[in-house]
Amino acid sequence: MSYKEKQNKDSILHEPMVAYQVSAPVPSFYNLLGSSKSLKLSTDFDIINLARKGFPKSALLALAKKISLNIQELANILHISERTLQRYEDDAIIKTEYAEKAVELARLYTRGEEVFGSMDKFKIWIKTPSLIFKGEAPVTILDTSAGFDMVFKELGRIEHGIFA
Fold it and tell me: pTM of the predicted model, to two decimals?
């Protein structure tokens, strides 16, 4: 047997491939969305499918309660009238665009909790007017995707110690 044949033979791996399969961890923001027994979330694709189908109103209200938003603040963020939101039955499925906003809210509040070290501190910050947001509270600009981006960027600055 030549050196080249021996080297190729030694480099072949004979182990089962299944041993190397790793399941992805569930992001922590799923906990804010998964309060309803009807919501079983384990992967990003589950969130995509759920957002495409829409959330039950009860899950949306549970999210709002966990992040201390009243129905008026939630309605403003979702671009829906408060009365229309109240008219939905608890098990009624809310439209896709509202579900996407709910996912973004859950991601934002989870990120805020990571940066501030507690959800309570983040809830105070997000409702406090700031010069960075031209005197508005960050929660008031969450009705647009640009507002979400600005708040996420500001959280990154805070995390790295850049306050202006």
Answer: 0.76
